[in-house]
Amino acid sequence: MDHSLATMTQAAVAFIPHQAMRDLTYRFPRVAATLWRDTLVDAGIFREWMMSMGRRSAYDHLAHLFCELYLKQEAVGLAGKHRCPLPMTQIDLADALGISNVHTNRVLQEMRGKGLVTLQGNTLVIHAWDELIRASEFDETYLHLRKRAAG
Amino acid sequence: MPRFYFDVREGPLFIDDENGMEFPNLDKAEQEAIQAVVSIGKDRLPRGDTRDVTVEVRDENRQRVLTVTVVLTIDRVHPPT
Asked: What does each C-alpha distance from A37 to A19, A68, A112, A139 come to in angstroms?
């Protein structure tokens, strides 16, 4: 592979041989379609990430990332009521955004000051969801979370 | 490793660093301050309400040991008529 993968928390990991994946997708077209959709979602996330790196301020980038992390976890039942697990340190967040820890601290303090979000231990608490979406111009379409009629 | 505190000043706005960060020496802390002031300046200065961004570094005794500032200077030269 041209990249590595890492988990931020303890995880069970399984390796599935290519042949088994091929057999699975030949026999079950809906599984193939789901994996294809997952690839499309990945591409959408990468496009948003490019937008953030190239165009958004650190504040908007972080706000956008918080919206995404919350919705993805909410979709699989791991989050609700605008609270979600965020097992990352501020240094991890800074590293992910490609900015210094000092800048990340400044952005988080501004968000807290405006009453948007707070980080409580390993939990992200969003106090003003609509405002967070507005601030980061977040459009959840790229995450394919809603069922839509085939067009 | 010694702990350093990085306060941010943007015009009248002051953001206090409560937690600090550990660095092996002042040179490494200075590098962090430079990275921070440049990226905060990139976001803040184009907004037009602030012309300078400063990161003030304090040591474990909360004594200031370093300040790094970026300043935006605009000189508009009127063409001779």
From this structure: 20, 17, 36, 18
Rounded to 5°, the CA angle A115-A120-A125 comes to 50
A104 contacts: CB under 8 Å, gap ≥ 6: A58, A62, A90, A93, A94, A97
Using the beta-carbon criterion (under 8 Å), do A101 and B43 form an inter-chain contact?
no
Average pLDDT, chain A: 93
Block means of pLDDT (10 residues each) for chain A, 151 residues, are: 89 95 96 95 96 94 96 95 94 93 93 94 95 94 78 46
Contacting residues of A for B11, CB less than 8 Å apart: none
pLDDT of residue B65: 97
B40 contacts A103? CB cut-off 8 A: yes
- Where do we find the tokens 């231990």? A121
User: What six digits make up the tokens of A147?
Assistant: 């069922």
Classified as helix, coil or strand, A10 is: coil
Identify the CA nearest to B54 among candidates A90, A112, A102: A102
Query: Does the ipTM surpass 0.90?
Result: no
Neighbours of B14 (CB within 10 A): 11
Q: What are phi and psi of B68, to 5 degrees?
A: -125, 130
Q: Do A102 and B19 touch (CB under 8 A)?
A: no
